[in-house]
Amino acid sequence: MASIRKSGGESLLLRYIILVAWALVCLVPIIWFLTIGFRPRTEIIVPRPIYWPTWSLDAWRLLVSDWPIASYLRNSVVAVAGSVVIDLILAIPAAFALARYEFRGREDIGFYILSTRMMAPAIVAVPIFFLFKNMGLLDSVWALMLIYAAINLSLVTWIIRSYMLDIPKELEDAARTDGAGDLTILWEIMIPACLPGIITAAVIAAIFAINEFLFTLLIASTSKAYTMSVALANFTGGSDGVIYNAIALVSFLAFAPILILVILIQKHLSRGLTMGAVKG
Q1: What does pTM read for this prediction?
Q2: Which residues contact 243 (CB under 8 A, 6 or more apart)?
Q3: pLDDT per position as a tens digit, 84-108
Q4: Residue 227 DSSP label
Q5: Does residue 159 form part of some domain?
Q6: What range defines the domain where residue 86 resides?
Q7: Is residue 55 part of a domain?
Q8: What is the SS3 assignment for 151?
Q9: Which of 4, 104, 216, 229 is deepest in the core (most CB within 10 A)?
Q10: At what angle do helices 266-274 and 244-264 cross, to 10 degrees?
Q11: What is the Cα–Cα distance from 112 to 97, expressed in whole angstroms?
């Protein structure tokens, strides 16, 4: 009995050691990257490592005084959040139809929806530019919201569909026996049952949207509609060269909202990543 208890304690200790080591692997690059933002530029570009750096707020002052970083962050949040809302409004009914309705060509339509995500973005970049130009939406957050939603809609639809396929049809049949219609079933049964999957799809769409650079650079021609991804490019050229500490700060500010979001919904996210893993 004592040997079993001892082996159990050793196994638990080994698990904690592995988890702590993995946490360090994940957190150390983030912390190191953040410390670059608090160091003077002259210390960052030296060829030899500096183990006891000098701390400075020069990069923060540069962002506050010379760059409207708060406006960039607001544009990113509005564009990403709006695109995720649009994706969910359109993807949830589409996923429900693909998962529950029987009609000719259902699988072909589902594959076509997913295949649009495989297309190289550069192929449609020029047509999309002229489309938004004719609509008068260039250099606006609304255009970014629409293009982010269009890019990620197929992926969100396919992910939610795979989760809905795991929901037993007996729940739906019981609701129909009680007189529930399709909208009632979708709202009161399907959405609550696959809520972790919906949250997972939303987070994945937000990550893809906030990392989008090509269409953001194409549509946002001035700082009026710049997001954090385009703001990073402003510190990689020009007469000042590459401003590494400012790049580190802007990268962390762009990364922080997604990190906070994932931490807040990690319970639903972990369930959503395991749901729908078999069927698709």
Answers
A1: 0.80
A2: 41, 59, 62, 235, 236
A3: 999 999 999 999 988 888 888 777 8
A4: -
A5: yes
A6: 66-274
A7: no
A8: helix
A9: 216
A10: 80
A11: 15
Indicate the number of domains in the chain.
1
Q: ∠ CA 231-44-25 to the nearest 5 degrees?
A: 80
Whether residue 99 lies inside any domain: the answer is yes
Cβ-Cβ contacts under 8 Å for 184 (sequence gap 6 or more): 175
Q: CB-hemisphere CA count at 13 Å for 119?
A: 15
Contact 208, 194 (CB under 8 A): no
Tokens for 160?
């939610």
Structure tokens at 19: 């988890």
Coil, strand, or helix at residue 73?
helix
The whole-angstrom separation of Cα 63 and Cα 38 is: 12
The whole-chain average pLDDT of the chain stands at 82
> Residue 99 maps to which CATH number?
1.10.3720.10
* Joined tokens for residue 158: 């396919």
Residue 201 contacts residue 226 (beta carbons within 8 Å): no
Please check whether residue 267 is in contact with residue 188, taking contact to mean a CB–CB distance below 8 angstroms: no
Residue 244: other Cβ atoms inside 10 A = 18
In 3-state terms, what secondary structure has residue 46?
A: coil
For the cut 70, the answer to whether the pLDDT of residue 269 exceeds it is no
Which pLDDT score, from 0 to 100, does residue 56 have? 80
Which residue's entry shows tokens 């995500």? Answer: 117
Residue type, 262: V
- Distance separating alpha carbons of residues 117 and 44, to the nearest angstrom: 39
Q: ∠ CA 154-155-159 to the nearest 5 degrees?
A: 120
Question: Is pLDDT above 50 for 280?
Answer: no
